[in-house]
Design goal:
By secondary structure, this protein is mainly β. The chain has two helices and 30 strands.
Length: 371
Amino acid sequence: MSGIESWESRWGSLLRGATIAGCVLLSLAAQAWAAGGRPSGGEQIAADEPRLPAAPPPIGKLRHGADGKIEVVDPKKEKGSGARRCAEDAICVGPDQAYPSLTQALAAAHEGDVIEVVGATYRESVRIGLARVTVRGVAGRPHFDCAGLRLVGDKACLLLAANGITLENLEISGAELPESAGANGACIRNEAKLSFTVRQVLCHGSQNGILSGGGDIVIENSEFFDNGWTGQTHNVYFSGDCTVTVRGSTFRDARIGHEFKSRCRKTTITDSMFRSTKGSRDIDIPDGGETLIYRSTLVKTVGTDNSEIIGFTPESCANPGDMTVKDVRIVNSEPNADIRNFDKCAGHAIILQGITVEGVKPKEFGYILHR
């Protein structure tokens, strides 16, 4: 046998051996699959088997320092071209600050950070995906103008995609989606069941002011107007498994929709104002729920789309409970205005206590008690 023949013979033997081994492995994999397992790379691991711990949180952006060593970027210490206008413990956003946009600041931030935004106009729609982050306007009130922009996730100008986010001292406007995307763009929207807080926020000129899907929501010292462009959109609309607490806020001049609509299991309103001049109800509680309205003003004018000032359970009794309206001032010029309990929650009343009326006294329908 020549050298070449000997080499070819040995090589053929190796190939035959590899083929046999491969067939054996494939056969074993097939048996494992038939027994309910998965091929290598997608194994099912029993719950009691040891496994790697969860990945640690990201340490942040890295760069080389002046000495050439790698260092972690602290976004709170980053500087811009202008004098710093934010608190020392905050990440600073502004035209001449460390980060020119909220999007860039969020890319460097961590959970629980405070991001301060210098008063200016910002043309961006932003997804906030860090838990317990506060986005706060400073040195004026920053305006997130989303008019004409593609809304992030086809949802909102500011989309809250983590729990416990707080928005403070911001103006938001221009959130609009085409019919093909739902025609329900919002200034602010949360992902399902995520809680958030809004303070000193001005929201206007959008299909919805707030559109929420669950969570515990707090609104303080804020104003919503010129939202609610259709019968399916509103100045604010809360749905899902939620509670909502409102203090010192104004909801006015929706185009067609309700000034305030809540499907929450509990709705608490104090020291606030609702004014319907074009749209539908001042307050709509379509599915019932424990509802408390204290020390507030409800205004209804001639020419609104719906003459009802308050509508309680017009759709269902998903959340049984009473509505208490106490120490509330009603200012009304609509001769057909009314307060209406649709009585979908049998035995649950609208309780009126200490009500004062200026102008035409509204009619009352359904189970309503005076105390």
